[in-house]
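Below is how a single chain appears once it has passed through the pipeline. First comes the sequence as given, then the structure the pipeline wrote out for it. We keep one example in the README because the format questions we get most often are answered faster by looking than by reading.
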Amino acid sequence: MLIGFTVENFRSFLGETSLSMKATTDKEHRAFNVMSAQSGDLLKNVLIYGANASGKSNLIHALYYMKKMVSSPFDAQTELIKTCQPFTFLKEAANTPSRFEIFFEEDGVVYDYAFDILGGKISREYLYKKSQRKTLVFERTAPGYESIKLTADMTDVEPLKKNVREDVLFLTWAAYANNKLAIKIVDWFANKLMIFGLNGYDRVKSDSVSDFAQNFVRKADSDILEMKSQKDGYYSSHTLYSGDWNNTGSVDVPFAKYSSDGTKRMFELSDAFYKALAGSAVIVIDELDLHLHPALVRHLISLINSVEHNPNNAQLICTTHDVMLLDEDIRRDQIWFVDKDYHGVSCLYALSDFKDVRKNSDILKRYLLGVYGAIPDFERGGTNE
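Resulting structure:
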């Protein structure tokens, strides 16, 4: 379960920026939208709003970048670290580390993992864990292996740490060296943090389509009788009619060719939702409402908030422009905004940060009026004149 994520000096985020999944003490909609964990009460899902180019996707990119760094092999990390993009519009930012930190809970233990990148090298890296009390697992204070301090959970890789390169994460290296705790952390990044919408979602081709995926797709296109996996791709079965519109059987057609963008997106999302609901994973989606009818968006959110369908406490984090969701049964700490100032710096904040928002406040109306910011600035933007 994700507790929080922090990024600093990456793309449009300059200062320390944090997204928290911790629930406030607000009692509103707790039964379905909040879950209990070792680390306290956590939110099942959050919605992130903001104008175009405000930085919403950059926040998702930051989380995706951290995931890719941790879960990629060494040679890929060496190339990936070169693509780390500090804030562009401030000269001093190029000489300041880009920082990524994540807090998550797995098997009743809370982990705090972070790394800094500066000049194509890992300038800092550390891992803490907490079951009863917070303890250090390892700490790296400079690119060289000499700075790496190990504790009891990492003593098995002590003789080998001199092989760690300056442009490679020690955590990934320790997992490669078969350290059990490092393997567990890397596995969480690889399999429990599913990020969708930036480079698509890597669907694993299988010989059959699960019942879950079948039902998922039919939510978008009820005319589909069955989904089939064949050597040259996926096919969908549809009713075949005679000239007088009598049912004469079925016909299989290439799914990608005959399906709408929304239907194809539901099929792509089905794999992520199945794995998340079955294994207590985190789904992160940039533009949840892309190609989807508002009813389908609400269905996806309802799956996460359902006690019946989500017994393992999967979580959903998504950016969206669907403002009508603000009228749904949603808590103020579940609504987040990204805004960008005149210097191109993005900032992230929650609706719960505003002290004057009452339970009967018309959040949708106030947001569109600009009370909470994070809407297009037409006066600042260009004109057609």
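The chain has two domains: 2-200+272-368, 222-258.

See the next section for the split statistics.
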